[in-house]
Amino acid sequence: MTAPDYDSLIDAETWAFIRETDRWYPPETATYSIDRQREIYNAMCRAFFQGYPEGVTATDRALGGVPCRIYETGTPAATVVYFHGGGFVVGGLDSHDDVCAEICAATQARVVSVDYRLAPEHKHPAAFNDSLAATRAVLAALPGPIVLAGDSAGGGLAAAVSHALMPEPRLAGQVLIYPGLGGDVDRGSYRIHENAPMLTRNDVLFYRETRYEGGEEPPDDVTAAPLWAPSFEGLPPTVAFSAECDPLADDARHYCGLIGAEGGRAHWVLEPGLVHGYLRARRSVARARESFARITDALGALCRGDWPYGGDR
Known about the structure:
The chain has an eight-stranded mixed beta sheet, sandwiched between helices. The two termini are about 35 Å apart. It has helices at about 5-10, 10-25, 35-50, 95-105, 125-140, 155-165, 190, 200-210, 250-260, 285-305; strands at about 55-65, 65-70, 80-85, 110-115, 145-150, 170-175, 240-245, 265-275. The protein is globular and about 50 Å long. The protein has about 325 residues and is of the alpha/beta class. Helix 5 (about 125-140) crosses helix 6 (about 155-165). The protein has one domain (about 5-305): Alpha/Beta hydrolase fold, catalytic domain (Rossmann fold). Helix 9 links the parallel strand 7 (about 240-245) and strand 8.
């Protein structure tokens, strides 16, 4: 298999973002202790923090017994429930603080960020259980439709919660950003992009081993790997984004294909030349900025009950 030519696929702006990320979060970070990984990740997130848009406020509150942060502006008619990335090992309310605030401003929806428990202290299904409990509490406490969203590990949690809730009439959609959905690590993008910048196949394997008891993904467990669900019928409208240069790229494509094959609405977006974690590049890289606009447009449309994707179901 010929390795991708990342020098031609990835533009100069994105390479500058990759180098800046590596300066804060070196590629070998996954080999460090968990505590050290979290220190490094938190420092990187602070370095990339962009602040809140004008008019957005945030309040910390437990929902379903899970710490959450609620972002509001104006009088929101819908709620986005957001699950952060970080391989189920790092991240929290602060790591995606500015991202959630900008989603709130762009969509005018309330955003609830969920601080689920992390591995290895809390193995699967702790993160899923927290995510489901918080979402159910949102449905009980807050009015209007909800849209589930998340990036990377959080995208997988959003999909798993969608499966657990269906049928839920107030679940208006889900937006998955370079999600990990339990794809086959020996095929497709996992092999093609096994040495991609920002996330490698070995990183994926480390996060999986850390998340599960015994180090192996449970077979046929949709709460762990939504791609292996027995059925995709009844899922809400779904928009999923892949970074081209990412081992996880095929997960979103396959997931949307499975939903569409069972008559559901699903739209897959492949973002050329982008890498895993590009949300942090939304201010410095034109491709990432344009993708973030597509992400917030998708969230806003689903919150309104719109489906602006033409021939897609």
